[in-house]
Write a structure and sequence with these properties.
10 helices; Arc Repressor Mutant, subunit A; alpha+beta; 250 residues
């Protein structure tokens, strides 16, 4: 399986956010193919702890036959991905959900039979607003290929998931935040978007590790984000970091 090109994925999503010319599910269909995946789904839920947690928004690329079956069978009441995802704070592989019982096994067998995919990974997104979201990725590759794909691309999938959440949140009309980052804050944020560690950024920029941490923390606070990954995604989605800046030097 191929390595994700983050700038290409970011470009597609930011184009969708700003232009509004293409429905999000169509953008996700193209994105899934580009990333070597079968399907992508986005689900936003209320934050409550009760078993009747409502789904506020759903954008999926799954076959229509599965969407119809999911509705008719009322799978939302037993869906192990929804059950885990509404409370999860870290990504989880669908393989982890199989031990939850016969109902989970039957659900995943039915999903695979309807073209959802042999493998699945879900990334939870926690907003400061009153909702929780999950972005799921599926594939039909072998177990070994899937493990390698996740190990190589998980950090990038985290950023892509936040971009998808931004696209859904803003209904394809994300305004540029009234935020002014300093040159150093922006520089450190761009290098972080390119996958560099704090130490690597410090060496590149020529400052100390603690100074890099300071710049990234202040950038994160200005963007009202919970962590640096979230700040990178918001900066890309809003145009503070142009997608072309993810490729070239500074």
């Amino acid at each position: 399986m191929s390595t994700i090109t983050i700038d290409a994925a970011a470009q597609k999503l930011t184009d969708a956010i700003f232009s509004g010319d293409q429905p999000l599910n169509e953008t996700l269909t193209v994105l899934a193919a580009d990333l070597g995946l079968s399907h992508i789904s986005y689900i936003r839920m209320g934050k409550g702890q009760d078993e009747d947690l409502s789904v506020l928004t759903a954008v999926v690329t799954f076959p229509w036959s599965w969407q119809l079956r999911y509705f008719l069978k009322q799978y939302i009441k037993i869906d192990p991905v929804i059950k885990r995802g509404r409370l999860a704070v870290i990504p989880f592989d669908w393989e982890e959900l199989i031990p939850e019982g016969a109902a989970a096994i039957a659900f995943f067998e039915d999903a695979r039979a309807h073209g959802v995919g042999q493998n699945g990974l879900t990334i939870p997104i926690r907003s400061r607003k009153n909702w929780a979201s999950i972005v799921s990725y599926t594939s039909n590759h072998s177990y070994e290929e899937w493990q390698g794909y996740k190990n190589t691309n998980l950090a990038k999938l985290n950023i892509i998931s936040l971009l998808i959440d931004n696209a859904a949140s803003r209904d394809f009309a994300l305004p540029r935040p009234e935020v002014k980052l300093s040159e150093r804050e922006l520089q450190c944020l761009i290098w972080s978007a390119r996958g560099k560690t704090y130490k690597e950024i410090a060496d590149i920029v020529g400052v100390s590790y603690s100074t890099v941490k300071f710049y990234l923390d202040t950038a994160r606070h200005k963007l009202n984000c919970s962590n640096v990954t979230h700040a990178v995604a918001v900066a890309i989605a809003s145009g503070i970091i142009p997608s072309q800046a993810l490729k070239g030097g500074l």
